[in-house]
Amino acid sequence: MTDIVVVSNRGPVSFRLEGGRPVPSAAGGGLAGTLRPLLAGSGTTWVAAMLGEGDRAAAAEGLMETDGIRVVPVDVEPAAYQMAYDVIANGTLWFAHHHLFDLARRPRFDWHWHEAWAGFRRYNREFANAVIEGAPEGATVLVQDYHLSLLGSMLADARPDLSTVHFLHTPFAEPDMLGVLPASASGELLGGLAGFGACGFHTEAWASCFRRAFEDPALAEAAGGTHAPRTFVAPLGPAPGALAASARDGATRAALKRLEEAVGGRRIVARVDRIELSKNLLRGFQAFEELLETRPRWRGEVVFVAFVYPSRESLAEYTGYRSEVEHAIERINERFGTAEWTPILYDPADDYPRSLAALVSYDVLLVNPVRDGMNMVAKEGALVNERDGVVVLSRRAGAWDELSGSALGVNPFDITGTAEALEVALLMRPEERRARAEGLSAAVRARTATDWLDDQLAAARR
Ligand code: G6P
């Protein structure tokens, strides 16, 4: 594994300052959390951005080794980082790939935006330089996610000895949606990706969007007639052993006890998500409201446990969405709540043991994204749940491909349909719940995180 280089925006460890000293804190984000245990002790190099003063202090003290992974920190100048991460990666590419643009108003490609694109290019260039200088001869380079899409052509030009792969954890935009970007940007994006030896996706649907971009006349012209690179499909799954151990540990069991007390023996509909536009929280709460409104039997009987926590709050779209979500929760709780019963249990703390406790104890797990690369919550829930819980799953989540045999599918835009699915799940007979829960767990166990990593290595070496 010493000839493997992983490259991602967030690294496996990040530091905060305590009394002026750098102290490690678990890195946020699902990707780092999944890859880190797979690579522990392997001697792999991991190139990642420095995310603040804590990381800078740690790097200055040479503390960037963790679990036998050698971390190479990339120190992008803060203004360029902000433009790359906020404006382009999360404010533009994330929105394009998830089809989240509110097209009557946004996006607006003005000179500020073009300047931000130049910052994004600089950020990619800094990462490319770190790999170009540090990767051993003939190394395999696994680049993760949309932040680093431009790296392919940069690495191909300077280090043709490397085997490079890009793996995208989001969906890929339909050609029409990618065509919303200025031609200069879509062209540079496709050209950057085309420089990789292979590009990987969680499902065939996203791989197909990607290949079709190169066949679209306007996009192809913008990309200067570049051909699509090889593509491969490698769905990511949780590491079942590590997840089961966390679900059994003391912190999770203590959180479970507290949750059970709060719910008071009622049925549990749960969701665990970042407060994120693609996750479709608003329609999820509106569906629960419709359930309570049109089927009064459920009033006082069910608690919607919403352990959803803030994310990317430097973007106005996210803070605005958070306040819409909080208003919806307040309104529904005021409308239906009683002295004994709060319909929606909401707490925006990012508390992993408590999130896991919700997954262990749901009767129904609602996962209704408008578009989602994979969705690990659906898979983690299926593995750790102890109540034969039913998963109500958007057909637009990548996970639908593997879980459609045993989950209840919903159109994420259809609030009435989602309310119906919640009721079907709540009324399901125990034998059917058991059969579906077993089907879900078997489907998830069929693909582990190790398989996903192996597929990337195989794609690089082909
Ligand atoms: C998405 C991305 C992940 C990322 C996560 C958190 O799921 O695909 O790569 O870890 O969001 O995003 P953040 O912006 O907090 O790193």
Q: How is this structure best described in words?
A:
By secondary structure, this protein is α/β, with parallel strands linked by helices. The chain has 2 domains: 172 residues, Glycogen Phosphorylase B (Rossmann fold), CATH 3.40.50.2000; 206 residues, 3-Layer(aba) Sandwich (Rossmann fold). 49% of the residues lie in helices and 17% in strands. The chain contains 19 helices and 16 strands. An 8-stranded mixed sheet has the order 5-6-4-1-7-8-9-10, sandwiched between helices. The chain has a 6-stranded parallel sheet with strand order 13-12-11-14-15-16, sandwiched between helices. Helix 3 crosses helix 4 and helix 11 packs across helix 14. The longest helix has 24 residues. It binds 6-O-phosphono-alpha-D-glucopyranose.
Bound molecules: 6-O-phosphono-alpha-D-glucopyranose
Structural class: alpha/beta
The profile of the biggest β sheet is: 8 strands, mixed
Could you give the distance between the termini?
17 Å
Helical residue percent band: 40-55%
- The number of distinct structural domains comes to 2
Residues in β-strands, percent? 15-25%
Enumerate the strands of the largest sheet in spatial order, edge to edge or round the barrel: 5-6-4-1-7-8-9-10
- Which fold name is given in CATH as the topology of the largest domain? Rossmann fold
Number of helices: 19
CATH architectural name of the largest domain: 3-Layer(aba) Sandwich
Regions with pLDDT < 50 over 5+ consecutive residues?
none
Overall shape:
globular
Mean pLDDT: 96
- CATH homologous superfamily assignment of the largest domain: Glycogen Phosphorylase B
CATH class of the largest domain: Alpha Beta
Tally of DSSP β-strands: 16
Radius of gyration, in angstroms, nearest whole number: 22 Å
